[in-house]
TrEMBL record:
Location relative to the cell: Cytoplasm
UniProt keyword list: Cytoplasm, Methyltransferase, rRNA processing, S-adenosyl-L-methionine, Transferase
Domain of life: Bacteria
Xref: InterPro entries: Alpha/beta_knot_MTases, PUA-like_sf, RsmE, RsmE_MTase_dom, RsmE_PUA-like, tRNA_m1G_MTases_N
A Pfam entry, by short name: PUA_4
Chemical reaction(s) catalysed: uridine(1498) in 16S rRNA + S-adenosyl-L-methionine = N(3)-methyluridine(1498) in 16S rRNA + S-adenosyl-L-homocysteine + H(+)
EC number: 2.1.1.193
Protein name as annotated: Ribosomal RNA small subunit methyltransferase E
GO molecular function: rRNA (uridine-N3-)-methyltransferase activity
UniProt domain Ribosomal RNA small subunit methyltransferase E methyltransferase: residue ranges: 73-237
Family: Belongs to the RNA methyltransferase RsmE family.
Domain Ribosomal RNA small subunit methyltransferase E PUA-like, residue spans: 16-62
Length: 243
């Protein structure tokens, strides 16, 4: 069943327009009586049916059919902090990461990021990635749309999380094992993990993360690609906290 997101709360009657009208009516050719799901800003989900189509105004009136109490979110709010990489690798991280349950993505320019950063480039990339997150959230029936932020430097004062991890390929002692780390904490309300680019972190960057309360973790014996490491991390969280 199709799902759309609205910025307000659910009500008995809702009017849709813009991209939602275009997709449901002009692309999918929905007619009166057709049902689909709507998720609001609070994460509430309900089934609605098409009640009236106004082609001249390009608006769509829908009415409530039934509430849907299914929660598709991870039991912990997860933020992925990822170094910028070249090409469309971060597109895949956002798309798949949204499907795997991430709530927020923060992309930053690290020392070994193979891209030339500018404010204009960052703004365009952020807009594109948020569209990818929205599409992925619809496809995977998320209750919330993940957010994506692209910035040149990390804003340390804004990185306030109950648990903070740093995925570091040189973290090899037993205390750095992800399973070991997770076994020693209750389900946190918020959790983040930072990931480097293909070239890894500079030693000074690692020191800076540690100074700001991040705990280094190992993602196993194998070296993962930059776009795959966050997905592996989310898979482990899903297995550990959900299954």
């Amino acid at each position: 069943m199709q799902r759309v997101f609205i910025s307000n709360e659910l009500t008995d009657q809702i009017t849709l327009s813009g991209e939602d009208y275009h997709h449901l009516i002009e692309v999918l050719r929905y007619q009166k009586g057709k049902t689909f799901e709507v998720a609001d800003k609070l994460g509430q989900v309900a089934v609605y049916e098409v009640n009236k189509i106004n082609e001249s105004k390009k608006t769509l009136d829908i009415k409530l059919v039934s509430k849907n109490d299914r929660d598709t979110e991870l039991p912990v709010e997860v933020t992925l902090i990822c170094a910028l990489t070249k090409g469309k690798k971060i597109d895949e991280t956002v798309e798949k990461g949204s499907e795997f349950g991430a709530n927020h993505f923060i992309f930053y320019h690290s020392k070994y990021s193979p891209v030339k950063y500018s404010d204009e480039w960052g703004q365009k990339k952020e807009e594109r990635l948020n569209k990818i997150a929205l599409t992925a959230a619809k496809q995977s029936h998320r209750n919330f749309i993940p957010t994506v932020t692209v910035q040149e430097h990390l804003l340390w004062d804004e990185l306030e999380f109950q648990t903070k991890f740093l995925a570091y390929e040189k973290a090899s002692d037993s205390k750095s094992d992800l399973k070991e780390r997770l076994s020693k904490i209750a389900i946190p309300s918020s959790l983040c993990c930072a990931f480097g680019p293909e070239g890894g972190f500079a030693s000074k960057e690692v020191e800076e993360f540690i100074e700001h309360g991040f705990h280094s973790i190992s993602l196993g014996r194998r070296i993962l690609r930059a776009e795959n490491a966050p997905l592996f991390f989310l898979s482990v969280l899903s297995f550990y906290f959900e299954i």
